[in-house]
Design a protein that fits this description.
By secondary structure, this protein is an alpha+beta fold. It contains 15 helices and 16 strands. Bound molecules: adenosine-5'-triphosphate and magnesium ion (MG).
Length: about 425
């Protein structure tokens, strides 16, 4: 038979064991921080009915226009989509299970998202997000607390090169007045609009401000600013957040051009950006999405949240090289097969009872090969369970790493003492 080699789907990555410690460190650290603010986990399915996203994210957005993995369920004709983001799914779940009536909800989720983008560094077709949502709270204090919490997370991860950009999108009326001014301005500059901008001119002009086209930057920079259309309440909302951030020592800049790619935001929008990752430097984006809950069939309510692009943060952690990689084992057990392996296994289980991480060669193998494996495993000690020693009711212990102070020479100990001796040395 001809050998067929398989490769993964383009833009979808394997997480290999050599990176596991980075992912685990991120997950553990993040959950630890979230728990300190009272957040609990929510898990939604990876598939949703397509409408959840076309309605939730918005028809005229990058995600819905060109990035969704959508298909028809061949069994019943349902239109389904692999989730491109988490917020719409969480809101769908909150509405479906009536969790928002007179209640506040603080939740987080972690998992894969799918977007059909051109794969490049920091931009994949399957990627992972840690998302956080606080729902049922109208006050700006929760927006501020969330930003302070994210800042704490960067610190806990040891990230230093991250900055916060903040903006407000105001309320619906303010956005409408601004929108009208924007359309007039873009119409007056029509010859400078690219194809995407032309298409969005009347459907979603705000998104033109979000363009990455360098040829449009100057024109977009001079466009009417929403700030000039903000009423007192919206201004006060933003000012309150600024006061609390300053009091907490969280640095930020106001970026009046920050609008974010999704339709559902109002008031607060923000991004955390690093210069250490090249072009894809945004590691976290979020904001307030009060309108979304009603858009997805719930009663009018409030929500604010963010999502962190985990691959990008993992890349930062990898570059820093500060997260220690734990070896796979503490003790490597070496034996001669047969009866000695039975005894080796018994001792290994006794060690594992005490939480020790143990590797044993399965089946009979040469001494040299086993020593090599023991070294490569990173284990601190080898435990020798050989015929000669067992005949004397003993086993051998030897330190494998430089810097150990006990068992630097191979030492014989009584078989029944082996576990205690090792526990004392580890
Ligand atoms: P961009 O403008 O770069 O396309 P976005 O607005 O689509 O970003 P969000 O929907 O806000 O991104 O997602 C939140 C975070 O998830 C981003 O800041 C980024 O860190 C990460 N992210 C988004 N898309 C991808 C992707 N295709 N691959 C890897 N990470 C991603
Ligand atoms: Mg995008």
């Amino acid at each position: 038979m001809k050998r067929e080699k398989f490769t993964g789907v383009k833009g979808m990555n394997d997480m290999l064991p050599q990176d596991a410690h980075l992912w685990h460190f991120f997950q553990k650290t993040a959950i630890g921080v979230l728990e300190r603010y009272g957040y609990e986990e929510i898990r939604t399915p990876i598939l949703e009915n397509t409408r959840v996203f076309t309605r939730g994210v918005g028809e005229v957005t990058d995600i819905v226009e060109k990035e969704m993995y959508s298909f028809t369920d061949s069994l019943n004709g349902d239109q389904l989509t692999l989730r491109p983001e988490g917020t719409s799914a969480v809101v769908r779940a909150m509405n479906e299970h009536n969790l928002l009536y007179g209640a506040q909800q603080r939740v987080w989720y972690m998992g894969p998202m799918f977007r059909h983008e051109r794969p490049q560094r920091g931009r994949y077709r399957q990627f992972h997000q840690l998302g956080v949502e606080a729902m049922g709270i109208a006050n700006p204090e929760i927006d501020a607390e969330m930003l302070i919490m994210i800042n704490r997370l960067w610190k806990a991860l040891g990230l230093t090169d991250v900055r916060l950009e903040l903006n407000t999108l105001g309320n619906l009326e303010e956005r409408q007045a601004h929108r009208k001014a924007l359309i007039e301005y873009f119409e007056a500059n029509r010859e400078l609009l690219d194809e995407d901008a032309e298409r969005r001119l009347y459907s979603n002009p705000l998104r033109i401000l979000d363009t990455k086209n360098p040829a449009m930057q100057d024109m977009v920079n001079a466009a009417p600013r929403l700030t000039d259309y903000l009423g007192e309440e919206s201004q006060a909302f933003l000012n309150r957040i600024e006061t609390l951030l300053t009091a907490a020592g969280v640095a930020y800049t106001i970026n009046p051009r920050l609008v974010r790619g999704l339709d559902y935001y109002n008031h607060t929008v923000f991004e955390w950006i690093t210069d250490s990752l090249g072009a894809q430097g945004t590691i976290c984006g979020g904001g307030r999405y009060d309108p979304l809950i009603e858009m997805l069939g719930g009663r009018a309510n409030h929500g604010v949240g963010f999502a962190i692009g985990m691959e990008r943060v993992i890349e930062l952690l990898r570059d820093m090289g500060t997260v220690p990689q734990k070896p796979a084992a503490d003790v490597y057990v070496i034996h001669h097969g047969g009866e000695t392996e039975v005894e080796a296994q018994r001792l290994s289980e006794a060690l594992r009872d005490s939480g020790v991480r143990v590797l044993v060669t399965p089946g009979q193998a040469g001494m040299k090969g086993q020593m090599k494996k023991a070294d490569a495993s990173g284990a601190r000690f080898a435990l020798f369970v050989t015929g000669d020693e067992l005949a004397r009711g003993a086993v051998g212990i030897k330190a494998l790493r430089a810097g150990e102070t006990q068992f630097t020479e191979q030492t014989e100990v009584a078989k029944d003492e082996a576990v205690n001796q090792l526990l004392g040395a580890l």
